[in-house]
């Protein structure tokens, strides 16, 4: 069972590589009854992913979002950018097991999806796994508490 507070919206951000994914994921989330706050682009022309990753991460970090979803071609750029925020634990997930582990062991609060490497329907399955997995705590809590620099 997830530990996310779904009285808050889910933040989503993307660059040009993730437009189709953001649209499909947002639609799926809204059909499930979740509120989605869009920080991504809707244009297919080249844009700079930090311009969308930073506002998404800030919204999660402020506590205004249940969690965040970031999408770009490889998901590395958005993950690196989001993880510059002290209160963010962004994990790159390309399959269900990784999505489960970034929640279970790392208490990830942002999931990063590589649009150029997985199908959109699989991305939705991965996000569903992320949503439905709770942080295990225990020995992992000690490790997670050592992540932030401040």
UniProtKB/TrEMBL annotation:
It is an enzyme of class 5 (isomerase). Pfam families: LacAB_rpiB. Its EC number is 5.3.1.6. It comes from the Bacteria. Keywords: Isomerase. The keyword Magnesium does not apply. Belongs to the LacAB/RpiB family. This is Ribose 5-phosphate isomerase B. It comes from Polluticaenibacter yanchengensis.
